[in-house]
From TrEMBL, chains A, B:
<keyword id="KW-0560">Oxidoreductase</keyword>
<dbReference type="InterPro" id="IPR050812">
    <property type="entry name" value="Preph/Arog_dehydrog"/>
</dbReference>
<dbReference type="Pfam" id="PF02153">
    <property type="entry name" value="PDH_N"/>
</dbReference>
<dbReference type="InterPro" id="IPR008927">
    <property type="entry name" value="6-PGluconate_DH-like_C_sf"/>
</dbReference>
<dbReference type="InterPro" id="IPR046825">
    <property type="entry name" value="PDH_C"/>
</dbReference>
<dbReference type="InterPro" id="IPR036291">
    <property type="entry name" value="NAD(P)-bd_dom_sf"/>
</dbReference>
<dbReference type="InterPro" id="IPR046826">
    <property type="entry name" value="PDH_N"/>
</dbReference>
<dbReference type="Pfam" id="PF20463">
    <property type="entry name" value="PDH_C"/>
</dbReference>
<feature type="domain" description="Prephenate/arogenate dehydrogenase">
    <location>
        <begin position="1"/>
        <end position="285"/>
    </location>
</feature>
<dbReference type="GO" id="GO:0070403">
    <property type="term" value="F:NAD+ binding"/>
</dbReference>
<protein>
    <submittedName>
        <fullName>Prephenate dehydrogenase</fullName>
        <ecNumber>1.3.1.12</ecNumber>
    </submittedName>
</protein>
<dbReference type="InterPro" id="IPR003099">
    <property type="entry name" value="Prephen_DH"/>
</dbReference>
<dbReference type="GO" id="GO:0008977">
    <property type="term" value="F:prephenate dehydrogenase (NAD+) activity"/>
</dbReference>
<dbReference type="GO" id="GO:0004665">
    <property type="term" value="F:prephenate dehydrogenase (NADP+) activity"/>
</dbReference>
<dbReference type="GO" id="GO:0006571">
    <property type="term" value="P:tyrosine biosynthetic process"/>
</dbReference>
Length: 285, 285
């Protein structure tokens, strides 16, 4: 099996580590604009060798794992040069623009639009880890547009990585993911900003911040290069979630200003059910 | 050694578990208004036996670990009945009101105002765990108001639990902690609310929420009974942090509406230094 990964970072790198583990006979080829990332990926054993787009005609599987703005350019180019039976994944955090851009491509049926909901706040080849996708959800969009035989192979691979599969149309995907992923990143970045701005003397943060702050601000370590194009592509949905979030925060602030502590108690209690929801996530892994 | 813990939850319970581990000869007595918590704490072996306020005269150490509004009533009562050499800790997340309420108490010198910055999102006796304070910071306020001999004993105990000690005046404590703890809780609760409100069908959250959302919303599992009085006592500071947070979120939303992606990139990049700050927290443990 010949596998090509274009953009060797957290998601693409982790995916090929799993593939190599499941299929030791597979050869993993890397393509990356960033020469030092490519060299690092080879040195770390994440990929076996470098490749170019010319090699994709004989590839069994191409994984496109680049920032979502770059994917809009790279994916059509990939589809232009692959073979009849090459499967192509693209794993970005927005799905409508990418599905639109290849909607009429002659090789649309070789492409599977996926979003494996997995990750850490780290990036680059050194962030790749085996088992990242175990127990995680993989959203597949427009599955009906992919050739059945290639669908089957892809599903088998996702399942062998331990992923749960869910099907969704691209618009619903982008709307929902704005709430459970994109908004979390902004809330975290702006929390980090608020505290950093206040505490000019960083020693104070470091002395008083506990695990609660650390957990809430973790996503503020994420890569701006990855997240800026996500916010661009999902602009309208993200602005909408942000409006609702700001409105909820403003109402909470009003309750504090009015010293309405019964209402504050009730607000928090009604959100406490997030416990059961999150527990559900784990039970149903 | 006779130790009494008043309010046997996450903090008080974890503290006596450590004490029992470090001093196996110690007898741990529990006092709790909640009969079922008391019974549960005994059944779990967190405390050895139940006690009453009448027993405090012969206690070596009393730990007051109740919600901060209850502490304002309980701590003076405790100081009324303890012996000459009894040490009293109180471990709440606000320090100005409690320090004011006992400022002129005849036994002020037996009291150490502390805030061990440790915790999880769980509560009650079953949340108590050994080693919770290892590597964590303990803020002590107005240390000069405690008898030197009792200070020494308390510090020895905190250090044997693995805590780093920092001294701070109550007002500075309450101001700083609003940023690194109280605000995180509100940002998390309101994030949970925003998503729950949107996703009436909880299945959607559960299907699409990844570890990023889980981390950011973790604090929304926290106890409203504990947090409402904290927000009440630190109202002014919390409102101020919330204003700054809302203002930063609104500016970010404006950048999105104006499609100023260079500025969005720069915003995120400037907050990325939170990485080094959080790493510093761990290195200097």
């Amino acid at each position: 099996m010949k596998v090509h990964v274009i953009g060797i970072g957290l998601i693409g790198g982790s995916m090929v580590l799993d593939i190599k583990n499941l299929h030791p006979e597979a050869t993993i080829y890397g393509i990356d604009n960033n020469e030092s990332h490519l060299a690092e990926a080879i040195a770390l054993g994440v990929v076996d060798a470098a490749a170019t787009f010319d090699d994709l005609a004989t590839s069994d599987l191409v994984i496109v794992s680049v920032p979502v703005d770059v994917a809009l350019i790279v994916l059509p180019k990939v589809l232009d040069v692959i073979g009849d039976n090459t499967i192509v994944f693209e794993v970005g955090s927005t799905k409508s623009p990418i599905c639109e851009v290849v909607a009429n491509h002659l090789r649309r049926r070789n492409y599977i639009a996926t979003h494996p909901i997995a990750g850490t706040e780290f990036s680059g080849p050194s962030a790749a880890i085996r088992g990242l996708f175990e127990g995680k959800t993989n959203i597949i969009c427009e599955v009906e547009k992919t050739t059945f035989k290639l669908q089957e192979k892809a599903l088998e691979l996702f399942k062998s990585m331990g992923m749960r599969i869910r099907y969704m149309d691209p618009k619903s995907h982008d709307k929902h993911i704005a709430y459970v992923s994109h908004l979390s990143h902004i809330s975290s970045f702006m929390l980090g900003k608020t505290v950093i701005n206040k505490e000019k003397d960083e020693q104070d943060i470091f002395d008083m911040a506990g695990s609660g702050f650390e957990s809430t601000v973790r996503l503020a370590k994420s890569s701006p290069a990855m997240w800026t194009p996500i916010f661009k592509q999902n602009n309208k949905q993200v602005v909408k979630t942000l409006e609702e979030y700001i409105s909820n925060l403003s109402k909470f602030k009003e309750l504090l200003e009015n010293e309405d502590y019964d209402a504050i108690y009730n607000e928090m209690q009604s959100v406490n059910k997030i416990k059961e929801i999150l527990n559900g996530m784990h039970i149903k892994k």
